[in-house]
Prior knowledge:
By secondary structure, the protein is mainly α. Among the domains are: 6-107, no CATH class; 234-293. It has 13 helices and five strands. The strands form two sheets. A three-stranded mixed β-sheet has the order 1-4-5. Helix 7 packs antiparallel against helix 8, helix 8 runs antiparallel to helix 9 (202-217) and helix 9 (202-217) runs parallel beside helix 12.
Amino acid sequence: MIRHHQKNVARYRYNRIHITDNAYYCPDQRDGCMKKFELRSNVQSVVRGVADHLSKIHNRKKMLKDNYSFFVKNEKTETTVTDDELKQWFMKDPRPPLFDFIQRTRAKRQASLKDLRDMRSLSVEMTKNPCTYPMKKAAYQLERFTGCINPEFESAILNVIHQMGKQGTTIPQFNHDDPTPHLCSGRWLIKLFMDQKDLGTKHSIIFGLCLLKRGIQLRYMKKRIFDHFLYKTLKEMWQEEATSEEHHIRLREIRMEILHLVNAYDDLFEDTRWVIEARKEIYFSNLFGYSIN
């Protein structure tokens, strides 16, 4: 449960609007409403359509700008998207698949002044008003900054993760497969890492690994969450084989960051063979200049 005052919950009832290449859906899942609407011509008209539906069918008051977000998904994951990203997509002719467009855009992303302002504002809220700021909203806001590589973003993300753990925030999309829903903050940290990893750039992957390492050092992730949701991914990343000299250099840098992350959780890996071998490879590579394939 999110432990802020009930009137704040009512005021900030957060609307997650699923949008696809050709449709959008009612966000009010608690009433079992799965109403599907044909996609409109722009973001503003979609927002009006959702607001009108909530008012007429669900007796909800006007949907405010600060209590909704859009999300897209494919067969594996979902991610929050900004109104600005959707506006760019609506302007394309023809429009590419929405999820792919978001991923390609974020892979080339440079943090804007607005991104920095928004992140700083969120970080301040987590410091000054953590008990009145809706934590689900804060968590989903972090997805909107995927692709932004900046130390300030790391600090803001970890401030939110800290408050999620402190307040026991749960994320609905994890309820069906999470063996420890009360440890959702660690799971969300992994989700943010996976979002960065899925962009496929070296810088986004390394930023995600550094974020995980810092979260582990701050004890924001329990062993069972690490073992269940992260261990296999890190092992597969370590065992990836290079297909070219450029790929080899990229993998070497990524593997070094994986090793730093593993060292941050050293007590969990005493009997793990691949980690022991990884340390040996790194050591001898640095000592004798050997390649890490």
